[in-house]
């Protein structure tokens, strides 16, 4: 009879590592360790600068408007151009990730992202900036979903939500430091040069790409599915050895029998087995980031243009909003593996809908246009949508098998980029005399309410379950 607790050597010797399900089972029982910390550092550095860029363009937008002498509608097109590139990059990266692996597309995305960030800093007019942002978006869009998939495929079933949430918080830290860096850059170099310096800082992912080239592992789950069992085993064995060195006794892996790995078809996303979850995720991804990016992109400008707040104070409010996001993220991290994904999705989207309703009533019905009203309403919506944003990539990856996880995650998550394209353009149009601020809050509230309904009727719980189980 086998002892239920085995050493690393016993486990690998007794259980052949060639089966994809056995590779997954071995990973699922390994606690968070130094292997995960190194992986999270490599992936998280890229994710930090993705968040940094997302907020950078928002906080420097008023400066760009003044520097190039453009309208708010034209500024909205510059924001949207970046998201068009991200949408395309995300779709391409997802398809590549299921064919060539997670590692190479991630490194390429960092090179493209960092290189074009530098180009944006030297833009000479609004057209050149728009084009550079469009190309830069290809790298930005590819980075986050691939990083999220690679990390989720190395996390065990217990504590997966907490570990992923800590990693995802690096995106919010990037958002938090962007306005702080903007204040420093504009104070040191002046508004005209300061925004260019801020964009140039976004070239640092080039250094991260060099680091990842030499140190980033490929997904063991993906390697096993592709028949590269020896490579998959080497990575998992390193994790097991690390756990053993720190005194962890690993349970014997139990091979799940709930999933068969077949050749992936693009149409499988809408097959009977996955149609309901795909449609639910599409709605949630689109609506969550329609609200989130709509607020983050336009709130600093609305404070100045509508609320008559000085630019420097607008940046301070952006810092406060980012700080609140970080607080919410760590609250979610502490709850996600105890409360579950579905209840948190419902709670967050409900808060966002309430924030939009408050803004509509105060501004649209009562006629208050102070920055204080916009700040309270905007912060409430940002805080609410931050809750699902913390773990939507993880939740999506939990609902699809390894053979299609890259494409499924990027395809559904790409709806957030579509929302990010539409929201700035629509809001720029509305704020240019077509409905104004009340119309903006109405659109935000409707989006949050639709997402809330989709989750209430279509979301399933994945807490403390293996990826192979939840994706079956």
Series of secondary-structure elements, N-terminal to C-terminal: EHHHHHHHHHHHEHHHHHHH
Strand content range = under 5%
* CATH homologous superfamily descriptor: MFS general substrate transporter like domains
Percent of residues in helices: over 70%
Q: Which sheet architecture does the biggest sheet show?
A: 2 strands, antiparallel
Specify the number of helices.
18
Rg measurement, Å: 22 Å
CATH topology: Growth Hormone, Chain: A
N-to-C CA distance: 31 Å
The beta-strand count equals 2
The poorly predicted ranges are: 1-17
CATH architecture type: Up-down Bundle
* Largest sheet, spatial ordering of strands: 1-2
Molecular shape: globular
The CATH class name reads Mainly Alpha
Mean pLDDT: 84
Domain count? 1
| Assembly level | single chain
Class per helix and strand makeup: mainly alpha
Structural key phrases:
18 helices, Growth Hormone, Chain: A, Sugar_transporter_CS, MFS_sugar_transport-like, membrane, 1% strand, single chain, mainly alpha, transport
Kindly describe this structure.
The chain is an all-alpha fold. 79% of the residues lie in helices and 1% in strands. The protein is built from 18 helices and two strands. It has helices at 8-14, 20-28, 34-68, 72-100, 103-121, 126-152, 160-189, 191-201, 205-215, 220-225, 229-245, 275-305, 311-339, 341-365, 371-398, 402-431, 436-458, 467-470; strands at residues 5-6, 250-251. It has a two-stranded antiparallel sheet. The protein is globular. Residues 1-17 have low confidence and may be disordered.
